[in-house]
Design brief:
The structure holds four protein chains of four kinds. By secondary structure, chain A is mainly α. Chain A is built from four helices and no strands. Classes of the chains: A mainly alpha, B mainly alpha, C mainly alpha, D mainly alpha. Chains B and C meet through helix 1, helix 2 and helix 3 of B and helix 5 and helix 6 of C.
Amino acid sequence: MIYPILTLFDILLALTLLWLGWHLLSTEDIFKAVVLFISFGLLMALTWVRMRAPDVALAEAALGAGLTGPLFLSALRRMNRVLKGERRLDSDENRGEDHAKNPKPT
Amino acid sequence: MITTLLYSMTGLILFGMGLFTLIVHSHPLRKILAVNVMSTGVFLILIATAYTPLGQGEVDPVPHAMVLTGIVVSVSVTALALILACRVQETSNLDLLKKKTVPETAKESTT
Amino acid sequence: MIFLNVDNPSWMITPIIVPLTAGLLCFLFQRKTFAIALSAVLVNLLAACFLIGQLLTCGPMRYSMGGWQAPLGITLRTDGPAVLMLLMTGVTGFAITLYARGYFSFRIDDPGGTDRHQQQQRYFWPLWLLLLAGLNGLFLSNDIFNLYITLEIIGISAASLAALSGKPAARLASFRYLLSSLLGSLTFLLGIVFLYKSCGLLDLDLLRNLTENGPGVRAALALMSVGLLLKTALVPMHFWLPPAHANALAPVSAILSALVIKGSFYLLFRLWFEVFASSITTEALNVMGGLGAGAILWGAIQAMRQHRLKLMVAYSTVSQLGYLFVAFPLSRAADNAQVWSIVIFMAMAHACAKSAMFMSAGTIFLHFGHDRIQDLTGVRASLPITVLAYGIAGVTLMGLPPSGAFIAKWLLLSWALASCQWWWVLVIIAGSAMAMIYVFRVISRFIVIPEGFSSQKLEFHSRLLEWPALALALISLLLGLVAPWLLHILAKGSIDLTQILPGGLP
Amino acid sequence: MPKTRNRHKRLDGFQRLFLLLVVCLITLLGCILSTIPNSAPGLADAVARLQERSGVKSPVTAVLLNFRAYDTMLEVVVLLLAVIGSWSLTKSPLPEQDTDISPVQMGVVRLLAPVMCLVAAYLVWQGSHLAGGAFQGGAILGAAGVLILVSDFPWIRTIPALPLRIGLVLGPLFFVGIALCCLFFTGKLLGYPEGTAGWLILLIEAACALSIGITLASLFAGGRPDNTMKKIQPPAKHPPGKSL
């Protein structure tokens, strides 16, 4: 009977999902969180396969891991660059004229 | 049935964890991650609802279509939120940077 | 040409498809965007009027997308509230489009920072038109998952619009707005999941006919309500609204305050009083009324304390939203069409008045370079029409006759007295009195002309900056006079249960 | 629940209260969720009954692009909206001189990108009978785009804005166009004429996959392309006069 094995697999998968989810949300290091998030996405793809949703699994694998992860990583890099002071200079950035016009709301 | 329940609960707990993190943590990236985890939780419940074990009939495809739609929506919103967060970060440091690099900003303002 | 018949339900897709296509074209071409946008909003307005006519002659209608009937396919429907909200969006949207044209050309003609303003204008039009399409889709849709997608369209475009001004404060506010809006839609989606799990249906008509009333449906309703309340910014969840609305560009503030909030409120109201009317308890209604009362008082108090004009107007939005929710507990004393009439009146009057107010505030900001209430003396000399528009819109906010808000408040008061719930009377009167204070506090500044004041700034004058605001303010004022006509539409379009198909597939 | 394990020390009063609230809420929702009887029929039967009229064999594709195609149409617009929003926020920060690409990476990208495009095309094509479709194909295309963007080929910076915009709008506009054509021919928006559903769906999927791919890549690029098109130099720390 395949049923108990499958249930065991389900429980393991669910616990791993929860564990990953909790860790990615609570680690101090954002980079680590993003990496955990990518693996979380891959595990989700596995879950979708288990739930007999191959379409969703394909989309999750491609989008969740293949795109959201890089998106987060590039945003993280961009933010770190800001923190380090190597800010990119835009020609369309605010020149502070609106600052002059509006004092801080009280 | 038990599978549906198990995965539904997992999804619900993921939703709760995301909600908690979204409100409590202040880092913008963390907030966006939290929203993603929340949405994954919701999708998991929906897919688990549609699940029927092998050999007991077809899986309901409508929730699958809904989740596909939802995943794409959540990716696009995530991307927008990330870019917005970067811009917030960049411009909120602007005042600080201005004091440090006065000549640069002066040059910049000639455009 | 069979589909050009007046009674063809296909007409109801016009307000969705036309702004959608126009928005795509605006993004594609980036030239002549104003012409595209203007024709789109004009067609939209005409379509709204046409749909009202169609409703009056043919009654409420259903339209199945792609010919697939209800349980599986997506249906749209028109009824009284929906077409009136379409009309509200059409009128307000038309005026806002004209104003936005004036606003951006003023900013672009302004020396300095031209490129930035051109960029703003370039992205404003597609975002606004797609937002309009999303709103119209929300008003017409009859499918709960489709409603979720329209909510997402509205949320994303509204947040992008709010960030358009490029100020750091606006970006931060927009980020918060986006996150709140996301949280709201996710909660809404969770509600849909609960609903689908317990009913297996997505169509609102079929859901209404369902007798099942278990805990699953209640939980679904609660989740969806919380999500929508977050998007509507009822008081404990209003934190995102004032900064987002006050820091945006003036036309954007008008759009956000007048239309975007009404979208989610309309959906909430429809869910409570139409779809799940049988699951609603008196306690839940009282909770909503209590929150509404809190919103009225808290928003008004905050509005009185503000030093910046746009923030004040934004807090006044928080306050005015409260009246919409006070109608909830009083609904037990009235029938369905009456509750709709009060809410629709209030929403329409507020949409026109609040957009007029934000437009006036924007014009004043453009001409004076700031909006500190303290220093806005003598605006009357430079911008008499704007001040007039502001004053008339203020009359509506206070709820004086003959404005539409007066009718709504009058109905609210009479129901409260009829059902012996006098505490609502106190709240409504207090809210109106405080509205009077915060409106007059600003107007008194505008009107006073200090000694030695010279109004030399008139060379910037643009008609598009002033007249749309005045027109909207006048509409909001005169809405009370056409009240019987609006009531007729609502009564005509009230929900006719016999019309609904019993879940038949083709 | 592992919720409280790690952060006991740093939770202040509000956070504890909120944690309690969330736990209560989730427990309540969990109880309700577990009591919902699994009796709701869902829409699986309806889909199965109408499957052969949809023109495709895969039920999910049938739902996405025929029965509930209106949802999908709006949802493609949501994607586009995200791009418009991001373009309105900022310019793309991509060009950076200091990333030097190793030849190995170059070779990998040169090999992988066409393969991914092929996979994407295959996914779109097989969407009519197996798992796959516009979103999956578009996602793969987008991933290919991300790969190319990361490798920082010099020609990326010279992509003019107009073709990019055409690529972005193509999918939604094509979808709306087909919808309106259907309205013209059958009197129903998105009601495909008899017998043409399969082809039309494939066409829509191809256009949408292309647009979704470009959309996702643009989202990764993180902003609007520079209209000046001369930006071979990195924008960082050079006088902006040159870039205009």
